[in-house]
Specification:
The chain is of the alpha+beta class. 18% of the residues lie in helices and 27% in strands. The longest helix has 5 residues, at 28-32.
């Protein structure tokens, strides 16, 4: 399942999408995020899943554009998306940023 965290406003769409089916619960992305945007949670939508999945913390969901800006940089291009610490540390490629 794809979990989208973020928002859309007049300046663009700012979402982090996490593929919970791909997330293996390792937590490397949580430790690599300098802004502490990510956290490990129990996947409430799948009662049979025994391992936690990554999610954007409630505190950062409505300000993700600003929380992630130090990593995104002012001139982030599509080819630079893989250079983000959370994306780079995610071996199963479960995290995608929309901007």
């Amino acid at each position: 399942m794809l979990a989208n965290y973020g928002y859309k406003d007049g300046s663009g769409e700012f979402f982090i999408t996490i593929d919970t089916d791909k997330c293996d619960g390792c937590g490397k992305c949580v430790h690599s995020c300098p802004a502490k945007v990510l956290e490990m949670v129990t996947d409430e939508s799948d009662p049979f899943r025994e391992i936690p999945v990554v999610a954007v913390s409630e505190e950062h969901r409505k300000k993700i554009k600003y929380s992630c800006s130090p990593c995104k940089g002012a001139t982030c291009k599509t080819t630079q998306k893989t250079a983000l610490p959370c994306v780079k540390s995610c071996e199963p490629v479960a995290i995608v940023h929309s901007w």
